[in-house]
């Protein structure tokens, strides 16, 4: 043990401040803790559980402080166990502690499997110096070019994250020493240039990624400014006169994107200095969880700054857009808890966009081109100018008017921006601004036969709507040059552009093309199939908007675009929410009949708790469950052969039926094959004198000889077997054949009969479930939202 003076009894009379100083907290942190009564009570209890009232090593004290502030509330029964692992130095790093939190949160109040717990937390694993050096060498080899370029401005936190992936239980202090040594070996002494402050503003530095580890163990972890407020990285609207993007050309001076004082003052007069953002989905499919992150960033920034966020439909492609998608997007944005300032369409600005295209031609920055798509591709790859690039302005103006009036065939002409065909940026190779499509528009009707491209329209509409912060995912970063080139060429107000990483989640696909194929080829049951990561599918599965937003907020608004977020991280937030909101009930999926032989045929109504901490004097916190001589338990809760670590029913063994009585198996009725178990005979203990360890959920006949309420239960699992199916050539071959298992005849307690579509419950010992829209008056259908614990982590997947 690590308590000082070898004492385990402690000084019971110590004041909290004295206790906190003894475990190594600095004076400021200790005083701040005392000021918080809840944390004080938790930390005092943890110190006594650890038997270190006489003090302990500072590193241990900091871990105990973290336990007091972050331990999962649903698993407090396991806190003393975790504390013992800390003081015995079996758990000694923040990474191990975080793993422990995740494990006990998934376990909740169930029995703790010590073997699985120790494996999940890396107990007993010692990472040698050689192991760390090998991991660091590999990382430096893979990232050498970037490190040499950035020198001592290299993001060391990202290097730590890579090491953690390879050696999750390595001592972070040693990792830091090895990385510092390796940096010195590669780069030599720091130069004056290394010590200069970077020109990039501090606010724009990327937030911490999920893989970054806590380096310092000598002080309690403190959340960064970005973790407290993820929107703190964005500048104020009045600061948008500063240069934040430079565009390099092959044949002209550098363009330093910024607003003139006159343009910015005009913008601020319209917006009154408020933040204006936009959420701009294309109405060509259903929104997925990646859009939830975009909503959180766009609507969240506006809300945090007291500003406004448009819901703007980017409807520039009339062939792909449907009213079904528009209606869905409007509805799902509201379900996610966001309220648009206005709902607009890019098509609202078609006339403005056309007039600005004419002006672009007049200024010599656009031309009508007749190359085919294949020719355009070939010329762009070879960095060759179109034969029509230098045609006279008046000629392009006439041809563009002909395009607008429908006098040129579809595919025979486009309007292209005259950008820089020799640029190093592929997205400056004379992008298409307009193309001909003789297709009526769902919103604008048949007025137009030419339609603007995304690259042309979205930056101009941002400017016309006086958007202050144009936020998008990192794949659009290379388009930033085109964005500012066009606004500068037209002399328009320029919003502040910032890109963030896409949300990538394991065991699923997120691209619209792949999602559309899954739906249209009927690999899944529609856009709202509960196995999909569409927001409609997640909602149908029983996931709440609150838990999705909490998950997104926890990830942060990072620019690191190489991370894959594990699905169980989302599931953690789902459980956290449902644990507080889902009423408890009992359902048996695979019933095994148990006849209680020492009970008469009467039916007794017992009280069962809707909530674990239901107060005894609150009748609304209980529901009635009938108890009769015929009950049903799970087939998996009975074995013919008992074992020491088994808590279910077996011949001659007793278990407690939850909220009811202990029963003891007295006889087993087998089928003709002498193996199939048909029925269990048991005796119950009406006085509850026996105290069995095992507790089982169950369902009883509500009337003699009448089966319990029968329901259908759909058990959903991960849609794909691999963590990243999108990278596979045969990604459809990776579909999980067991992603949907239907249990047709599960038994439920009678109180579930009145459940309505969308009602969520915790089926005790089974997981969280929601009533599906396929339910009928004859039979309820339930979807499994999430299990009570993460079986995948334990299986090493």
Question: What do you see in this structure?
Answer:
- The protein has 797 residues and is of the alpha/beta class.
- It has 26 helices and 27 strands.
- Strands 12-25-26-27-23-24-13 form a 7-stranded mixed beta sheet, covered by helices on one side.
- Strand 1 and strand 2 form a beta hairpin.
- Helix 1 packs antiparallel against helix 2 and helix 3 crosses helix 4.
- It is globular.
- The N terminus and C terminus are likely disordered.
Pick out its properties.
797 residues; alpha/beta; seven-stranded mixed beta sheet; 26 helices; 27 strands; 34% helix; 16% strand; disordered N terminus; disordered C terminus; ATP-binding; glutamine--tRNA ligase; EC 6.1.1.18; Gln-tRNA-synth; ligase
The DSSP helix count reads 26
- What integer is the average pLDDT? 88
Order of adjacent strands in the largest pleated sheet = 12-25-26-27-23-24-13
Radius of gyration: 32 Å
- Low-pLDDT regions: 1-12, 200-220, 791-797
Helix content: 25-40%
Summarize the structure.
This protein is an alpha/beta fold and 797 residues long. The chain contains 26 helices and 27 strands. 34% of the residues lie in helices and 16% in strands.
């Amino acid at each position: 043990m690590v308590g000082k003076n070898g004492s385990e009894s402690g000084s019971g009379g110590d004041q909290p401040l004295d206790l906190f100083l003894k475990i190594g907290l600095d004076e400021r942190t200790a005083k701040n803790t005392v000021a918080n009564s809840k944390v004080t009570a938790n930390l005092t209890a943890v110190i006594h559980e650890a038997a270190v009232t006489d003090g302990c090593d500072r590193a241990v004290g900091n871990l105990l402080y973290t336990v007091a502030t972050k331990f999962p509330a649903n698993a407090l029964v396991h806190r003393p166990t975790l504390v013992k692992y800390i003081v015995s130095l079996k758990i000694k790093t923040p990474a191990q502690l975080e793993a422990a939190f995740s494990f006990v949160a998934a376990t909740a109040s169930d029995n703790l499997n010590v073997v699985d717990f120790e494996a999940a937390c890396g107990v007993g694993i010692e990472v040698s110096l050689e192991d760390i050096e090998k991991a660091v060498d590999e990382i430096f080899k893979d990232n050498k070019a970037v490190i040499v370029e950035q020198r001592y401005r290299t993001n060391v936190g990202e290097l730590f994250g890579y090491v953690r992936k390879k050696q999750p239980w390595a001592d972070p202090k040693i990792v830091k020493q090895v990385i510092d040594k390796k940096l010195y070996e590669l780069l030599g002494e720091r130069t004056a240039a290394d010590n200069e402050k970077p020109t990039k503003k501090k606010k724009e530095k990327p937030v911490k990624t999920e893989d970054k580890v806590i380096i310092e163990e000598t002080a309690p972890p403190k959340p960064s400014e970005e973790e407290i407020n993820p929107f703190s990285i964005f500048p104020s609207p009045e600061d948008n006169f500063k240069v934040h993007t430079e565009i390099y050309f092959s044949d002209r001076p550098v363009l330093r994107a910024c607003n003139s004082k006159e343009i910015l003052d005009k913008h601020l007069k319209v917006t009154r200095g408020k933040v204006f953002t936009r959420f701009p989905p294309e109405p060509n499919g259903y929104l997925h969880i990646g859009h939830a992150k975009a909503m959180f960033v766009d609507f969240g920034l506006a809300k945090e700054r007291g500003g406004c966020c448009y819901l703007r439909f980017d409807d520039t492609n009339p062939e792909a857009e449907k009213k079904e998608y528009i209606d869905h997007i409007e509805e799902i944005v509201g379900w996610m808890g966001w309220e648009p300032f206005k709902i607009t369409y890019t098509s609202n600005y078609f006339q403005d966009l056309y007039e600005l295209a004419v002006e672009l031609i007049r200024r010599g920055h656009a031309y009508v081109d007749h190359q085919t798509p294949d020719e355009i591709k070939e010329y762009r790859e070879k960095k060759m100018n179109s034969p029509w690039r230098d045609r006279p302005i008046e000629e392009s103006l006439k041809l563009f008017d002909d395009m607008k009036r429908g006098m040129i065939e579809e595919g025979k002409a486009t309007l292209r921006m005259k950008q820089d065909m020799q640029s190093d940026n592929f997205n400056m190779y004379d992008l298409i601004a307009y193309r001909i499509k003789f297709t009526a528009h769902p919103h604008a009707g048949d007025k137009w036969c030419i339609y603007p491209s995304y690259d042309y329209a979205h930056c101009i509409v941002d400017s016309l709507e006086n958007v202050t912060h144009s936020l998008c995912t990192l794949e659009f970063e290379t388009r930033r040059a085109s964005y500012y080139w066009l606004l500068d060429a037209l002399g328009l107000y320029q919003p502040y552009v910032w890109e963030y990483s896409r949300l990538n989640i394991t065991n699923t696909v997120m691209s619209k093309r792949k999602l559309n194929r899954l739906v249209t080829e009927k690999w899944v049951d529609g856009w709202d199939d509960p196995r999909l990561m569409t927001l409609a599918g997640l909602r149908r599965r029983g996931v709440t908007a609150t838990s999705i937003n909490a998950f997104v907020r926890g990830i942060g608004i990072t620019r690191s675009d190489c991370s894959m977020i594990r699905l169980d991280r989302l599931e953690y937030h789902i459980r956290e929410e449902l644990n507080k909101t889902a009423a408890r009930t009992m359902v048996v999926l695979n019933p095994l009949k148990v006849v209680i032989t020492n009970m008469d045929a009467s039916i007794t109504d017992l009280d069962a708790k809707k909530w674990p901490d239901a107060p005894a004097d609150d009748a609304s916190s209980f529901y009635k469950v009938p108890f009769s001589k015929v009950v049903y338990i799970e087939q998996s809760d009975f074995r013919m052969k008992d074992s020491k670590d088994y808590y279910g029913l077996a011949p001659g063994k007793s278990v407690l039926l939850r909220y009811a009585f202990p029963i003891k198996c007295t006889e087993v009725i087998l089928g003709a094959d002498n193996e199939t178990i048909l029925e269990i005979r048991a005796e119950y203990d009406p006085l509850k004198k026996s105290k069995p360890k095992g507790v089982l959920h169950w369902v009883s006949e509500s009337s003699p000889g009448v089966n319990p309420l029968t329901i259908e239960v759909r058990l959903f699992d991960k849609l794909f077997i691999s963590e990243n199916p999108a990278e596979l050539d045969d990604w459809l071959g990776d579909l999980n054949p067991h992603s949907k298992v239907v249990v047709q005849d599960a038994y439920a307690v009678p109180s579930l009969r009145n459940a309505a579509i969308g009602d969520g419950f915790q089926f005790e010992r089974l997981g969280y479930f929601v009533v599906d829209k396929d339910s009928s008056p004859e039979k309820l259908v339930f979807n499994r939202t999430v299990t009570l614990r993460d079986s995948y982590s334990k299986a090493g997947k």
